[in-house]
Design goal:
Blueprint lengths: L2 H14 L1 H36 L6 E5 L9 H10 L5 H10 L3 E16 L2 E11 L3 H4 L4 E4 L4 H5 L4 E4 L1 H7 L9 E4 L2 E9 L4 E2 L2 E2 L3 E5 H8 L6 E6 L5 H15 L11 E3 L1 H44 L1 H9 L4 H37 L8 H27 L3 H6 L2
Parallel strand pairs: 3-10, 5-7
Antiparallel strand pairs: 1-11, 1-12, 2-3, 2-6, 2-11, 4-7, 5-10, 6-7, 8-9
């Protein structure tokens, strides 16, 4: 029997029992939809981390007081807090003086403060203090005005660069650039407004005020650990720059070769490895548990196909008596079970896609549905139908035509 003929017979059998076919499909529909929704959430989370958290600049890495591994547990973080020294301006200068594969070095600090303009007050705002080159390293863009410059940093000018949400709240109808705001009682001139960044897991990224690092340290004190952002001269020298930065920091801290680093070198790869370490097992378990529903759907299909073989015993007998071979009967029933499961998979993928879009619209939870996941889901659903139909097809093919024709 040609494959196309077996497909036509399968579609005809499915359409002749629409309600039963739909009820049979429910297991596969819910199974595929559940798996795809979970995969969509996981993939969305991974893409979100790559784009919003792990993206720390082109050919860039960070030098921090703590390493990524220190955040693996409370005990590790507590031990690092006792052991690790603060990152200082002198560390940044030593990295800048190293040269070699290290191209640019920027420094930053962070605090909390109250921002006021007229009668409007924004309490406990993030105060970002940076060297001007952080704007280039971290690709900070201005939608109005500009970022502060080196002369303003060196002279400790009271200027600031505000986030888009801060501008909307303090200056809903006026141009913020050139206006004067008060931060913890001190007066600062707004020189620029940042391009809107959106949010990360529902937390806004545009509620901040940035000022020159030297201005910040003069106002809030220098006894604090700083953050350092470093870029390499190119992609090919990225690892060399990391190695050189590590060597500089270890030398400054007089660490023997056998002693662990008491600082952190943070790269996008390290952030993703931490993500995989924390959520990798959870992701595998989530997909594994939801896949059980696909197995249940396959059992339902097998059961219905066995019932179908019993109901169509006489039809099978007639087909075999006029020359149908065992392989033809096997093809017919395998095509039917596969087609049935594939339809369920397609409906399940559609439902999952709509649910993922709804979740993304109504909640801050990111979703992403790659084409490879859709293709894999359809292949798996078709495979479930194929496997589930093997035993019923084998039983149908082994029926004796004479005995089958006697069935009333």
């Amino acid at each position: 029997m040609p494959f196309l003929e077996a497909l036509k017979l399968a579609i005809s059998a499915i359409l002749s029992h629409k309600l039963r076919s739909f009820l049979t499909l429910l297991g596969v529909i819910f199974g595929v939809a559940t798996v795809i929704v979970v995969v969509s959430l996981i993939e969305g989370f991974n893409v979100y981390v790559d784009e919003k958290i792990a993206d720390i600049g082109t050919n860039a890495f960070a030098v921090r007081k703590y390493s990524i591994d220190d955040f693996a547990s409370i005990e590790a973080l507590s031990a690092a807090r006792r052991r690790n020294k603060d990152i200082t301006l002198e560390d940044a200068e030593a990295l800048r003086a190293r040269g070699g594969a290290i191209h640019e070095v920027g420094t930053k600090a962070q605090g909390i403060g109250d921002v006021k303009f007229g009668s409007k007050t924004l309490s406990r705002m993030f105060i970002n203090a940076t060297t001007p080159n952080i704007a280039d390293i971290e690709r900070i863009e201005a939608q109005a005005g500009r970022y502060f410059n080196k002369a303003e940093d060196d002279s400790r000018r009271n200027v600031c660069f505000i986030g888009a949400d801060v501008a909307d709240k303090l200056f809903p109808t006026a141009d913020p650039v050139g206006q004067t705001i008060r931060i913890d009682g001190r007066t600062y001139e707004v020189v620029g407004v940042g391009k809107a960044l959106g949010s990360v897991f529902g937390q806004p990224r545009d509620m901040y005020v940035s000022m020159p690092l030297q201005t910040f340290l003069a106002a809030y004190g220098s006894r604090r650990s700083l953050g350092i952002s470093v870029t390499s001269s190119g992609p090919e020298t990225y690892q060399d720059a990391i190695d050189e930065a590590t060597a500089v920091m270890r030398t400054r801290r007089k660490l023997p070769p056998s002693e662990k680093d008491n600082f952190g070198i943070i790269t996008p790869k390290a952030i993703n490895e931490l993500r995989d370490k924390i959520f990798g097992t959870i992701q595998i378990a989530a997909v594994g548990v939801t896949s059980i529903s696909l197995v249940v759907g396959g059992i339902v299909i097998m059961n219905i196909m066995l019932v179908s073989v019993t109901e169509r015993t006489k039809e099978i007998g007639i087909r075999k008596s006029i020359g149908a071979r065992r392989s033809d009967i096997v093809k017919q029933f395998l095509a039917e079970s596969t087609m049935l499961s594939l339809c369920g998979g397609a409906i399940g993928v559609t439902i999952a896609y709509l649910l993922a879009k709804l979740v993304a619209v109504l909640t801050p939870v990111p979703t992403s549905l790659p084409l490879v996941a859709v293709t894999f889901a359809l292949v798996v659903s078709a495979s479930v139908g194929l496997i589930s139909g093997v035993y019923p097809a084998w039983r149908a093919a082994r029926l004796d035509p004479i005995e089958a024709l006697r069935v009333e």
